[in-house]
Each structure stands twice: as structure tokens, then as C-alpha cells.
Amino acid sequence: MAGDQELPPLNAIRAFEAAARRGSFVGAAKDLHVTHWAIGKQIRLLEDWLGVPLFERRTRGVALTDQGADLLTDVSSALSRLTSATGRLRGPQSARRVSGVVRVNVLPSIALRWLLPRLSKFQESFSNVEVKVSTTSRKLRYVGTAFDIGIRSGVEHGPGIQCETLMPDRRLPVCAPRILRDRPVETAHDLRRHTLLHSTTTRSAWVQWFSAAGVPGLVPVRHLELDHTYLQLQAAVDGLGIALGSLPLIEADIAAGRLVCPLAAPELRDDDYQLVIRDDRLRDPAIKAFRSWILAAAREPLAGLETPARRNPSAGSGRKRTRSAPERSR
Hints:
Layout: H1 10-22, H2 25-32, H3 36-50, E1 55-57, E2 62-64, H4 66-90, H5 93-97, E3 100-106, H6 108-125, E4 129-135, E5 149-153, E6 161-174, E7 195-199, H7 203-213, E8 222-226, H8 229-237, E9 243-246, H9 251-256, E10 267-278, H10 285-299, H11 308-311, E11 321-323
Parallel strand pairs: 3-4, 3-5, 7-8, 10-11
Antiparallel strand pairs: 1-2, 5-10, 6-9, 6-10
């Protein structure tokens, strides 16, 4: 067993995870019920202990450095395992005592491809909590009080709501394995021989990916545009072409072999997926249970399986990352 002298300052690790998740020292301070000055002190302590900067301080909030992003991956995984282990020891009695209703409003693509495949796990643990799922692409400030928790792409600002990062949106070309048999894709240039799939609001994403890949202006065989992201991804599963897929939304398809990522880089970054909670519902036991569960679920691969990027974090090391244009109607 490693000695205590080899462990980082654990309070600082907790402060780091909260600040990284919230993108703000102030937000982390609210979560941990301390001052933002105390969060800053813990972060500086951890940076001094590691000898590397973890955050870039900005006018509004903070952003992870590359070293900070790497550390967050391992810290999130460790905290997730700790949550699972202590949850097993606590047993089901405490979960059964929690009751109530949780109204979750999410983007349609996230509902179909991320939330619903995982929701049975929450219901198994919290059998007395009723979850009502609704979908819309509208900003949550226009939804009013018709939700308790929401999932959106990008931070939403508005009175009476708070945001925290749920998971990053990382994108790579994805397709059904069978379409690569006759037309393999080994470099970005090879995409010219394929149909590229788009959703209505993501047409510019391929342009940005081509630029990052060093093939600006590449012209494919054809384009196929669909109304929604979930239709675009289903078209990829059905072998209609190659999509630029959000890795969290295709995790189950990758694990099952329905989709593959023929190229490991470059990785396009869109706005992180955010968990939005109404302030007046924060103390409700059912809301607190759902928030804790979904944050833990976002740290773990579906059904214990891993995407290629998670299996080999060093794949494409040094690759250029770029952010795509905002996507809202998903």
C-alpha cells in the first residue's frame, strides 16, 4: 500500500474536482459550502504539490489546462469508484427512503442515446422516485418551472437556475464497419469517397473538422442532411454514410460494434454538456439523489464498457483539438 506521503492533499483534490466540474471557483465553493478564497487556496496547494498549473484564470470563471484535463479524467474515475464502493456498503435501505418526483428536460438526442439507456440503474436504486422525462431544444429559461433538472449543450444563464458540467462533448468521424470494407478510411483524404451525414444544425462542424485535419475544402461523394442529431447517428448505424459523432452519444454503439471511429484524430470539441438545476429544487432529496447519480453516471462508461478514446487515452496524443460551432437543436 502506498504511504500517506505519496498521496496528494485530498481536500485539494476535492476542491479541484468541484472547480473543474463547475468551471468556477465560486461554483465549487457553493457545492462544498466554503468560500471561493478557500477553493483558490486548495487549488494553489495542489498545483504547488504537482508542480504544474491546473487552471487558466479568466475574467469569468476558469478553464482547465491540458495537465488539469488529464488529472480530471483520473480523479473523476477514482471518485466514481469510491462512490460505487460506498454505495454498495450503505445498502439499499437509504435509497428506498428517498421518494418524490424528478422532472428531467433534455435535448432529444441526449434522451434517446444517453439518458434512457442508463435510467433503469437509477430506478433500481431509487424505486420510490418517479422520473418524468421530457424533451425540447428550447433554452430552459423559456421552459419556466416545468422542469427540475435539465441537460443542455453549453452553459445556460438565467434567474433561478445553476449550471455545472456534466461531461465533455468530444467528436470524431463514425460509421458502420461494413462501409469501410470496400472504401477504407485511413486518412482524412479518404473521406472524399464517402457520403457525409449532417443534422440541420451541425453542417458547419464538418468544415471545421476538415480544417483541423489539414484538408480544408475536401469534397465528398455526397452530403445527406437530416433534421436531428439522433437521426444523423441512426443513419450512420444503418450504413448511409459517415457522421461526426459526439462520443457520449455513441458509446453503446461503439461498444456493441455497430459503429467504429476510423480516425482517432483530430478530435472536435463542442460546448460541454451541462446539468441545469432549478435553485428552488436543490434541497429536495429526490433531486439531490438524481443529481448525484447522473454525475456519477457521466464519469463511467455505459455497462462497464469503454469507447476507444477511453481505452487508450494516449491515442492521438498531441492531436489538435478544436471547438465546433454551437449546436442547440439536438
